[in-house]
Design goal:
heterodimer; A: about 290 residues; mainly alpha; two-stranded antiparallel sheet; 2 strands; about 75% helix; elongated; B: two-stranded antiparallel ribbon; 11 helices; 4 strands; globular
Chain lengths: ~290, ~280
Amino acid sequence: MRKLLSAALFRTTRHPVFLAILLVLPAVLGIATGNTLRYGVDDLFLLPMLFAFGAFVALSWGREHGDGTLRNKVIAGYSRGQVFFAELLLNTALCTLMMLIFAVFTTVFGFSVLGKVPATVLLRVGLCLLLSAVGMGALLSAVCCLISNRALSAIVGVLLVLCLMYGATSLQHVLEQEPTFTMEYFDENGEFTHAEELENHLYVHEPLRTALDVANRANPFGQLNQCMAALSEYVYDWGDGYEPHYDVTAEKAELTARLNTLPLISLFSTAAICAAGWALFRRRNLK
Amino acid sequence: MRNLLSSGFSRLWRSKLLYLGTLAVAASVAYTLINNLYYKSLWGLTDLTATNLIFAGVEVLPVAIAALVALFIGTDHGDHTLRNKLIVGHGRAAVYFSNLIVCTAAALLMYAVGSGVVIAIGAPLLGGFSGTAHVLLLQILSSLLSVAALAALLVLPATLIPGRAVSVLTVLLLALALTLLVTPVLSSVLDVPETIGGFELTYGDGTTQWIEEKPNPEYLTGFKRQTVQFLHEFLPTGQLAEYGKEEARLPDGFWRLPLYAVLSLVASTATGIAIFKRQNLK
């Protein structure tokens, strides 16, 4: 296993494209995020990072399949489990390293804004970000290991990230709905007449609500969304003369409390993904 | 050239990816339509019109075009048929043009199917198109130019990168970057209001607060604004986004978008051919 890891690491660090994706891209995106934090926390620059994860893992597995080295490793006496977990470990570790580089550069270049956030919250957000990178790396590895065509693997890797993003955004939209909403009525002169409390048909009731919430938090992109939501609550600048129209302290406490359970859900979902990936890889015909 | 086109189209019609991509574009338009009709049924209103949908409802289009272009030309590289075409006497420019024409035809087909869904189902359900017929026709024709320019932009890296997987990734990431990053960022920079404030804020307890109007420091002016606007309108995804806006009904500078589409198409094709002529085909 150690030899497999060492060989895979050597192969990766020798390739200039892989090294550029691994070291340069997260640093550039981290600097861009840090410099734009004063306009608000956004996952805008995280998206290219996640596409880079998809590209990196797809190319890594694709090369193993394309060169036939997976088969060679099995012939040389390594079990399929060892081959799978060595590749999965390396991909996951490198995705986490990319996220770490991104987080460090974001913190350094956005320190004037992030300095306002309590250290405990920052640490929790940082931990959740790293665990979401672990989950994303594991999921991409588990899917890409099953596709022997390198080009197809690349398409699937990138489209999987896109699907996770749309899935998380849609779930977030559904879960953010309030049970009721206020409809305001105006007369023909534009004057306010009355308001009426109406039931929101988009609100999802229990037990489906809990199921959707767990699905959202198990999705690595959903985890990132929740980190961003918690962070933006702390760094939002209400400006001179403006006053928040809701209880900010309670909102901060709720969002931070959600970060406490997030690592556990993340670990469980990653373990489940790894197990499913391994089960499928064991039955895979290595041509 | 005729033989190249004939073989190219013959491959295209047999490509499963063409039908999958077309289906994905049609499904994406149908999803946007159903989603908005659902909102309309709940609250009796929707901010979507059939005219918006025909131009803006094809978010999947760049990704579908990218996947098709990358795999179509990537197969030519992978099977070494590009080199074979040169050996039998076709010029490099003819090979590039034939691939460009075939991929553009596929992109236009995907766009036409997406628009067909809007015209056949969306327009009756959303209450017809807004604006006059000749303006709409002009916009549809101009948007076809933008789709062709987008295909030409994606054919460039697909032809020049020999490795199939790297080519697929590059083309796909370029399409995603243009759709999800560059165009939204440029658009949001241009949409920043010139002033902020100037309204009365009403709180839940009934108290009000007047917010003074002042110039917005984030509003771009002069050369910076012109540069950002040029970049936004020069990119095909920016042009498609502009057609989807309600205020884009024949604005003062409407001629710019089709002109930029033609310029973008010519620029990417000329660059592609110039580099492809010097490329070493292994």
